[in-house]
Amino acid sequence: MPNIQDLPNDIYELLEVGAVPSSFTADIVDRYGNQVSDHFVKAIYPEKREPSIRASNYGRPCTRQMWYEMNGHTPQQMDGSVYMKFAYGNVVEEMVMHLAQAAGHNVSEEQKEIIGPFGVKGHIDGVVDNYLIDVKSASGYGFDKFNDMEAFAENDSFGYLWQLGLYYHFIDITVEGCGFLVLDKQTGHLKFVDATAHIPTKPEVIARMSRVIDDIGLSTEPTRPVEATPKVAKNGNCTLATICRYCPYKMQCWQHDANDGDGLRVFMYSTGPTYFTDVKSTPRVPEIE
Ligand code: SF4
Asked: What is the 3-state secondary structure (H, E, C) of the chain?
């Protein structure tokens, strides 16, 4: 009986030796090919999706971000490089599920729709060896963050545990647990992380969803969460917190509350743009107007 804990080594062994079990048939390979081409087409012809509450976004720490999204505000345009990351992330994550199957593990329920509280929907990656699985592709830094799930739960900037928790509590089959299959895109290292003890409880999932629905129905923006507190440098300059840096609504969110009402100031460092809520000492790099 295959065990999810053995999955990374079984996949490495498969790739080293190439001994695919007879249960891995040509139609599974074809299905993988079709899914990759679907992702390819969606990357080039993205579907216009109406803003909605989804399993994948209700757990983000900032309901103010969701308020902007759901109340008709225009998000900042993302760089092509960000779209590129999404595009190959999808293909890589698909590959992991198919390699799991090729390595002889029991894979089922791929892309099954789950209907959570208040009818909010999402799709699971699948069930592997009776574990509900979410596949994540990560940078080396992101990969290491999964080593300490206590700390991860404290700082779950993308709401991954809320998403997994919703799936786990609302899936209509019995599973032994749930977790992440995390692939380091730089090194090719893969690991299984059991998250069963770290997901929110069912009442917490329902309460969180209820709060999100209440907050997006407010007539003005909800207050910012504590995680959005700007970082203060030794020279007194304040920059956006991590959750705000990646937020597509940061310009409108901070337009009255940064730099004495002038909004965010952006300076171009070699590592990319940095967003300042307060500039006490002007950075010696170009400012983007
Ligand atoms: S900029 Fe920060 S506080 Fe404002 S909506 Fe985005 S994440 Fe929330």
From this structure: CCCHHHHHHHHHHHHHHCCCCCCCCHHHHHHHHHHHHHHHHHHHCCCCCCCCCCCCCCCCCCHHHHHHHHCCCCCCCCCHHHHHHHHHHHHHHHHHHHHHHHCCCCEECCCCEEECHHHCEEECCEEECCEEEEEEEECHHHHHHCCCHHHHHHCCCCCHHHHHHHHHHHCCCCCCEEEEEEEECCCCCEEEEECCCCCCCHHHHHHHHHHHHHHHCCCCCCCCCHHHCCEECCCCCEECCHHHHCCCCHHHHCCCCCHHHCCCEEEEECCEEEEEEECCCCCCCCEEC
